[in-house]
Design brief:
The chain is an alpha+beta fold and 155 residues long. Helix content is 26%, strand content 38%. A hairpin with a 6-residue loop joins strand 4 and strand 5. The model has no long low-confidence stretch (mean pLDDT 95).
């Protein structure tokens, strides 16, 4: 079983842009922005949050087939990692999840501001309503632009 190493964990849990993708049974893709990702202690699963408004198709896909992909991009360096796997939990955030989500949003806002984007525009990217997802990692890919982009990472 795949697991996230320490370097990958730093990328996932820092300030990346997070995109979450799903697909319907007839292979129609759906995507939504993710927030507040954190790696499980054993490194084999990732928990993250998606904005509830606009996420219904993704949630429907996950309930139907469980297939999920998440891409984490450090917007200042373009270091990128893609996880593919199976969603094993869909639910509401716990009260203590909000601090984690807000810390990620603040860090992402500062990273984007360092590139010249206005903080108030970044704030418009998220909702105050989220859905909690947990995915088991089945595949891992380096998506950093360059000669290894798209290369599968295996243990």
């Amino acid at each position: 079983m795949l697991s996230i190493d320490d370097e990958q964990k730093v990328l996932i849990e820092s300030d990346p842009a997070i995109s979450v993708g799903t697909r319907s049974a007839d292979l129609v893709p759906h995507a939504v922005r993710g927030w507040g990702a954190r790696v499980s202690p054993d490194g084999r699963s990732v928990e993250l949050f998606i904005d509830r408004p606009g996420a219904q198709r993704c949630v429907d896909d996950l309930r139907e087939n469980g297939r999920i992909a998440a891409c984490f991009v450090h917007i200042q360096t373009l270091r990128a990692l893609q996880l593919k796997g199976r969603c094993v939990e869909i639910g509401d955030p716990a009260p203590d999840d909000w601090a984690w989500i807000e810390n990620h949003r603040a860090a992402f806002t500062e990273a984007a501001a360092s590139l010249g984007l206005r903080r108030e525009l970044i704030r418009n990217l998220w909702s105050t309503q989220v859905v909690k997802l947990r995915l088991i990692i089945e595949e891992l890919f380096d998506q950093t632009p360059g000669p290894n982009a798209g290369k599968e990472i295996v243990e």
